[in-house]
């Protein structure tokens, strides 16, 4: 079963709750957080975890999203097949991730980032996948652009992270758009 792990504390604009709400409309999954164990739908195909810290991550088919305050200093091992989503502005996270030898997908405002913006408007942003990446199921996702409609209250990091998670879970793809206007 595929796994999505949100690592770190802090609200990060409630991305965990928003991802749960979005995915609940599309797929069945189980969610684990501190004292909450919850199932959404029948026959779940995804497990979602929200953890403050982890030392060893030795699971297959795992997507690890690093929240802004995630601390990788205590992480001793991550399965090399794990895909990590990291904001390129978080240099400490990138430094510690490099020693863990997992696949890293960077999000941010640099043309060097794997996932960035190709344009931004008042309510419409176009998110660009700059190069081919491996999805969580092992398939290859080719470069593409995804039009996104968000309320202006969301930050660039939030939008890029949201789209990165959906892309890697193959819940959005070529020719589709994402509309999360309130």
- Structure class: alpha/beta
Q: What letter string, H or E per element, gives the SSE order?
A: EHEEEEEEEHEEEEEEHE
Using the CA coordinates, give the radius of gyration.
Answer: 15 Å
Give unreliable regions as ranges.
none
Query: How many strands appear in the DSSP assignment?
Result: 15
Distance between the first and last residues' Cα: 32 Å
Describe it.
- The protein has 182 residues and is of the alpha/beta class.
- It has 3 helices and 15 strands.
- It has helices at 15-24, 91-100, 156-168, and strands spanning 2-7, 29-33, 36-40, 46-51, 56-57, 62-66, 77-78, 83-87, 103-107, 115-120, 124-129, 133-134, 140-141, 144-150, 178-180.
- The strands form 4 sheets. Strands 3-2-4-1-6-8-9 form a 7-stranded mixed beta sheet, with helices on both faces. Strands 10-11-14-15 form a 4-stranded mixed beta sheet, covered by helices on one side.
- The longest helix is centred in the C-terminal third of the chain and has 13 residues, at 156-168.
- The mean pLDDT is 93.
